[in-house]
Predict the structure.
Amino acid sequence: MQNEELIKQALIARENSYSPYSNYKVGAALLTKPGKVYLGTNVENCGYSPCNCAERSALFSAISNGERDFEKIAIVGSSNGIAYPCGVCRQVIVELAPNIEIICAKDENNYEVLKINDLLPHAFTPNDIK
Ligand code: THU
């Protein structure tokens, strides 16, 4: 699947955002190696700390459905710029999808493709606790 198509899926996921506190909507679309797409959005809570980011929603949904191999993930926010994953999501990506292509996007015409090492150098990984 082309990057632009995956970004369009992330834009669709963003429509489901539950973000009454920040009013910042985020959408993620995760493509597995077998070719299935899992959508995720940010889900907030009046208790604030239980908030979940779009990227983690997508990854946890895919893992919950038995997926383990991931090709790329597109992320869109709702500000004027490109959306980059937060620190917590970077840590989750390095754990669950260390080789994934991360498409940080504003829309289909404005995006950057990065690897987790670009976003989280010298990461703490599962190897570090062996
Ligand atoms: N958010 C994401 O969904 N992904 C990120 O990588 C950055 C932050 C969400 C969390 C919260 O619902 C809102 O954006 C504002 O932080």
In short: The CA atoms of residues 44 and 51 lie 4 Å apart.
